[in-house]
Amino acid sequence: MSTTRHLSYFKPHFKASKGFELSTPVETVPHKTIAVPGHSHASPAAGNVNFSDSNNGAIADIEHLLTKPLPIKGQGTFGLNYVATGPFRRVINSECKHSNGHEDVLVLEVSDDTACFRNRNNSDPASILQKVTLAKPDLGFDSGLEKRYWFSIDKGNKILHYGKGYQTTALTLLEVPFADDLELWPFAVDQMSPVVVHNDKVTLEQLEDGSVTVVENLPPSCQQFYANVTGKTIQLDSDDFEFFEAIHHSVTTEGCIGWNKLKAKAEASGHPFEAQYLRVTLGLNRGNSPGSPFVMGVWPPHHYSSVHSHSNALAVIKVLHGAINSYYYADLDPTKEASQYYRVMEYHKDEVTWLSDRQLQMHQPRNETAKTCVTIQCYQYGDHDHTHYEYFDYIEEGENGQPSTIKAFAPTSDWGFSDFRARIKQEWEQYQKDEREKA
């Protein structure tokens, strides 16, 4: 006999369209309806939906109901951060009532190692939607770990999606088409490209394949960052100073300023030398970002950072010189190997990428070339972030190079920009003088 688990606390993150979000923690009580502003008794035509959660073994006997009107019929995705301790279901119902039995509802059922969609909230095999067009590994719940479980209803393409982590099509684990006669409220999951370009650079082919996005599609804060760092004069080198070559020499030559700093950081942290990079800050911490809002990152050849998040901040990143790969992860999970990323992108000089609290938040930059890469990052908390968590959480690798624990890193500065540039210039000029004397 299965045991029903009680859901005692969760944070809903419903996003159906622009500005539609429920992000307030809700205390749930078994068999008690919790009304969120909106109509308590809804219908598909009205575009309202009740969300019920059942943490169950077979047929759930406990449901937690939430009601929220949908401002636009047909757009968005349901996501819920939840610590699962057993199999559970997510149920969408047009009426604010318990759904057990034979009424038409939409059910996402997640068990130990699999998942499925049902059209009834029961355990009858006939209620399972059988036609599956995509089923990846790791469909089941992650016991004891807080994860975002989401599903999307795409009426236009008649497809149901289920995934874990960020609400993006790249993280879809299960895809099931549905028939015309299945009456549902469609909420489509979408994915924006990590690559940002100016609107006068977009081609018809890129509109077709979605390989880039334009700055106007980004959150307002990211649009502001883009304007700050993408100007033609935001460059390293000047007429009188080969700044990039001087940086590359410093971080790749034993005994130089950059190399010595990297070595000191490795010794202090106990992490490999190749796991170090330089953080050169521009300006003071204004209190609206994790650390300084502008950071120049210096990535020597074959160096990388740990897999990390960004304090739920928004950011825009431009490559000033060289190239760097970014490996994207659905979450910080110390039980998974570093190879379990869902996407990798390579960014080159003058290319721009972005991240937000909802997309691309967790990644691992790796310079896999023989030349140093330099980037400029801009960070800021979102308008609705009233916590301002000041740390970057990261996975600290354990024995044999496998992830083991999650730790917090306070974004600090190795140098201020003006000081760094002056030191590197002095070192470079001395190096060039010595080379001339040798000749």
Low-confidence stretches: 1-61, 183-189
The structural class is alpha+beta
Residues in helices, as a percent range: 10-25%
SS elements, strand count: 27
Rg estimate, integer Å: 25 Å
Strand content: 25-35%
Write down the overall mean pLDDT.
76
Counting DSSP H or I runs of 4 or more residues, the number of helices is: 5
Q: What is the global morphology? A: elongated
Measured between the Cα atoms of the first and last residue, the distance is 85 Å
In this structure, how is the largest beta sheet organized?
A: 8 strands, antiparallel
Question: How would you describe this structure to a colleague?
Answer:
By secondary structure, this protein is an alpha+beta fold. Helices cover 14% and strands 32% of the residues. The protein has helices at residues 204-209, 220-229, 243-252, 257-269, 417-438; strands spanning 9-15, 21-22, 26-27, 33-35, 48-55, 64-69, 77-83, 88-93, 106-110, 115-118, 134-135, 146-154, 159-164, 172-177, 195-197, 213-214, 278-282, 294-299, 314-321, 323-328, 343-348, 352-355, 363-366, 373-380, 392-397, 403-409, 415-416. The strands form five sheets. Strands 1, 2, 3, 7, 11, 12, 13 and 14 form an eight-stranded antiparallel sheet that branches. An eight-stranded mixed sheet has the order 16-15-22-19-24-18-17-27. Helix 3 crosses helix 4 (257-269). The model is unreliable at 1-61 and 183-189 (pLDDT under 50).
